[in-house]
């Protein structure tokens, strides 16, 4: 990143959905998305059903967990680019950084959680995002395993504490409320569950009673 890009304001932390099935309103996987000053989605933080590939020595993600060995882990596309997911309401580009979120924000398909005044520069973004990244590390470390830990058992077909619970925990750490999408999916199982205790969240920087942003739920 160039010095001018670091100094430029307009970075935002967003809430978005992957619709299941794609394009429908049936179900949703929720995620954090980072948009740069041009409005391009350049980074995601996701909780995903995962399995450890012993032969390759890496974690791999899958659409939904159904095996007793499947785990719930957090991922940052900055270090795990293959965990990038399609964003509801955003037109595909040739590359993920070509996926502009501005129209989706105006329609309410994507919600701004931080930087609603387009006032974050890159350094401020790093500080603002740190509690969510700390949640990622803490959730992964809840059980022993490679690459920071094996996280939690993934509930069968996602019915229980799942990827949406990871999202709920991350935004709790950010001190913001659940987003209000203009046309939300009918089902977002696990969205009401939090994976870490209030004491741990407080230690990670949560502000439990932070006022909601104009684009967030109360």
Task: Give a structural overview.
By secondary structure, this protein is of the alpha+beta class. Helix content is 22%, strand content 22%. It has 5 helices and 7 strands. Strands 1, 2, 3, 4, 5, 6 and 7 form a 7-stranded antiparallel β-sheet that branches. The longest helix is centred in the middle third of the chain and has 19 residues. The C terminus is likely disordered.
Question: Runs with pLDDT <50, length 5+?
Answer: 207-218
Question: Could you give the distance between the termini?
Answer: 35 Å
**Class from helix and strand fractions:** alpha+beta
Characterize the overall form: globular
Query: What's the number of helices?
Result: 5
Percent helix among the residues?
10-25%
Biggest sheet overview: 7 strands, antiparallel
Total number of strands:
7
Helix-strand string: HEEEEEHEHEHH
What percentage of the residues does DSSP assign to strands (E)?
15-25%
Average pLDDT taken over every residue: 89
What is the CA-atom radius of gyration, in angstroms?
A: 16 Å
